[in-house]
Structure formats: C-alpha cells, structure tokens
TrEMBL record:
It comes from the Bacteria. Residues 4-119 form the Response regulatory domain. Pfam families: Response_reg. The keyword Phosphoprotein applies. The modification 4-aspartylphosphate is found at residue 54. This is Response regulator. It comes from Sporolactobacillus kofuensis. Keywords: Phosphoprotein.
Length: 120
C-alpha cells in the first residue's frame, strides 16, 4: 500500500514541483494546503502518513502548524522545507517534532528522505 503525503506550501508552483519530485510508485499525494491553517485542517481530516511543509507561510507559519499537528498526533511525521538556510529555524523545527529538514530547491534526495522518515 502506498504511503500518503500532504504537501503544504503557499506557492502553487512549489507544491507542483514537490508533487512532480515524489516517486508515485511509492507515495500517493493525499492532499495539498497553501497555508498553516489549511495544513492543520487537512492533517486532521486526511491523516496522511507524512507531511512536507514550508516554514514561511501566511496565516499560520509552518513552525506553528507543526506544533498544532504534533498536539493532534504526537507520532506525526513532518519534513519541513524552506528556502531560508537559517540554523535557528532548523533547530526550532526539530525541537517541535520535525523528523527532517530540506532546503529549497534542493529536492534531489527528497524520495530518500521520505523513505527514511517512513522507514521504507
């Protein structure tokens, strides 16, 4: 059975880019969200196996959405991504439960990270 993924990014282009990078023989896109509030709502509705989420978004940041998702499901698997290379954001994301961090647009190893986090 394919593992389900929720893609969260305020850029439609980036959501499509990530969707196209994901190996469809291993993973199924369960849904997409364009901000942190939608991410929390989609997570509680879809219960995906993994979330790929941008850090910088409108309405609710990726870090705040991560915190809410982890409250809903402490076992949630979330990979954070951002074009910002800030060590502080990486530290915050990991402290709040993110399993991995990816810098945009370097998604060449994305499927390997997905497999690693999902224990494929």
């Amino acid at each position: 059975m394919l593992k389900t993924i929720l893609i969260v990014d305020d850029s439609r282009f980036m959501r499509t880019f990530i969707r196209n990078k994901i190996d469809s023989s291993l993973f199924c896109i369960a849904g997409e969200a364009s901000n942190g509030l939608e991410a929390v709502d989609q997570y509680s509705t879809l219960h995906p196996d993994l979330v790929i989420m941008d850090i910088t978004m409108p309405l609710l940041s990726g870090i705040d959405a991560l915190r809410r998702i982890m409250k809903l499901d402490p076992k949630a698997k979330v990979i954070m991504c951002s074009s910002l290379g800030s060590e502080q954001l990486v530290i915050e994301a990991i402290q709040f439960g993110a399993k991995e961090f990816v810098l945009k647009p370097f998604f060449d190893d994305l499927n390997e990270k997905l497999k690693s986090v999902l224990h494929y």
